[in-house]
Write a structure and sequence with these properties.
236 residues; 4 helices; 11% helix
């Protein structure tokens, strides 16, 4: 995976897992020392070149959305300005959003961070220098772990007393059979299975729902069943 794809994957995982997710209150009072990320199910009312208008709990509000976005749709990823990214959103339909609230000059400004609607996902682009606020370090991954859960996006596993998320979505080469997809082999990894993982690991500065690291693997072997997967390289 390229650096851009790795960063996109990290952003998506952070959105899907959520960190310090809370429920929106009628009048949220945010502590100055700690920004909160809020996830909410809404109905999309409209989207213009700068804002997204949504309705939830009989209340309508606008969120600031201008800027660069990573759009994931139909298995493809694109980096687009909000003025183009908003065209992927269906007005009148429900969506799940993640946002934070910024205070400026005694004003409260909701900032849209991510949106999921059907098979479409939008995640606000975060520069690599900003990701350093989340990432402690990047190291080589070469470890054994115990599978806790295998989802459509990857494997939640236990390494000692720490939880890691292994990004598995995409194409793989299965030893003895050839090219396959994670959705086709996901069922071959069950809770309790011991696996060996080789690739790159991103250590997070703080736990995200108990997860301390995100792994971008090149090779994954199920030591209990013998299933061996090697990440399929994209053709240039």
């Amino acid at each position: 995976m390229t650096v851009k794809k790795v960063l996109a994957a990290i952003l998506i995982i952070i959105f899907l897992i959520g960190f310090s997710l809370v429920v929106l209150e009628a009048q949220p009072k945010l502590p100055k020392s700690k920004a909160r990320i809020i996830r909410l199910r809404v109905q999309v009312i409209s989207a213009n070149n700068r804002t997204l208008t949504v309705q939830a709990r009989n209340r309508t509000g606008k969120l600031f959305a201008a800027g660069k976005w990573i759009v994931i749709s139909g298995g493809e990823r694109e980096s687009l300005d909000w003025s183009e990214a908003r065209n992927f959103i269906k007005v009148g339909e429900n969506a799940t959003i993640a946002f934070t609230i910024m205070r400026r000059n005694n004003r409260t400004i909701p900032i849209l961070l991510a949106l999921k609607q059907g098979n479409v996902r939008l995640v606000r682009y975060i520069p690599r220098r900003s990701l350093s606020l989340l990432i402690s370090k990047r190291v080589r991954a070469d470890f054994k772990a115990i599978v806790m859960n295998a989802s459509e996006r990857g494997i939640l596993a236990k390494v000692g007393n720490r939880s890691v998320f292994i990004i598995m979505a995409g194409r793989w080469i299965k030893a003895g059979e050839g090219s396959t997809s994670w959705s086709e082999v996901r069922g071959l990894f069950s809770p309790g299975d011991k696996i060996w993982v080789y690739g790159r690991m991103i250590i997070l500065k703080r736990s995200l729902k108990g997860i301390r690291a995100i792994v971008v693997p090149k090779t994954v072997i199920n030591l209990d069943t013998g299933v061996s997967l090697i990440r399929e390289q994209l053709k240039r």
